[in-house]
Amino acid sequence: MRTVHSIAELRTQVAAWRRAGERVALVPTMGNLHRGHLHLVERARERAPRTVASIFVNPAQFGPNEDYAGYPRTLDDDARQLAAAGLDLLFAPSVAEMYPRPLEQMTQVTVPELSGILCGASRPIHFRGVATVVGKLFNMAQPDVALFGEKDWQQLVIIRRLAADLDFPIEIVGVPTVREADGLALSSRNGYLTTEERAIAPALYATLVASAERLRAGEPDYARLATEAKARLAAAGFRPDYVEIRRAHDLQIPTAADTDLRILAAAWLGRARLIDNLAV
Ligand code: PAF
Question: Residue 257: left if φ>0, alpha if ψ -120 to 50, beta else—which one?
Answer without folding.
Answer: alpha
